[in-house]
Amino acid sequence: MQQLFPPPGPDTANPVDLVHTYAYPPREAGPYLRANMVSSLDGAATHDGTSTALSSAADMRIFGTLRALADAVVVGAETVRNEGYRPGKARPSFAERRAADGQTPAPAIAVISRRLDLDFAAPLFTAATTPTLVLTGAGADRKELAAAEAAGARVVVAGDGDGVDPARAVRELAALGLSRLLHEGGPRVLAQFAAAGVVDELCLTVAPFAVGGDAPRIMNGPGVAGPARFVPVSVLEEDGFLFTRYVKQTEAQVTA
Length: 256
Prior knowledge:
Elements (H helix, E strand, L loop, with lengths): L1 E2 L10 H8 L10 E8 L17 H13 L2 E5 H7 L11 H6 L7 E5 L10 H4 L6 E4 L5 H9 L3 E4 L8 H10 L4 E4 L3 H9 L5 E6 L23 E9 L2 E8 L2 H5 L1
Parallel strand pairs: 1-9, 2-7, 2-8, 3-4, 3-7, 4-5, 5-6
Antiparallel strand pairs: 8-10, 9-10
């Protein structure tokens, strides 16, 4: 099992190693959606309502790397409210890499919201280096749509009704040039994307804690047909935390 080594610091090679480990496939392969979640040993996705208590310093380093590699971060409105989401950061150490790849200085945050019950006065919308996106359905309230746009958000219609179709959301973001996607949940929204068959990869941090209670799993919604099989491609460890990476098994792998 590979360890996160040497210890993190501004002069170590660790960030370069993480960039190599978590590199996206070539863009010509098409849009690619990676999910990043954390779970306790007993399967809880949150503790006391947020994921913060299940995280660690190493988890946050990987979190930062995954964001820095992504074009856009997809997240549900409930998670935005519960976790106090702010705009994506422009990380100086990734500036040259992102510019060479044609990416904006910071990843866009793409919020999935059916009712648009969001705080459009929050920094997520008013202080974003890259404008925040709001993914919603064609039946969304027009007044709330206008409020989102007035706050500087870009509204993306990704459903025929009042909700978002996960497959269409991926297509609409790809049409905007946002093909390297990072999904940060929450559990209900991630389950919908998995059920739609559009989750290509899962990066799962397993925290060395048992929390009990009735917290949701990392996917807490509709079932996944099959079930879908994922192949492990890397496992890292630090301070008892496991950082796993699984890639969805292709049809060719299944039939081989």
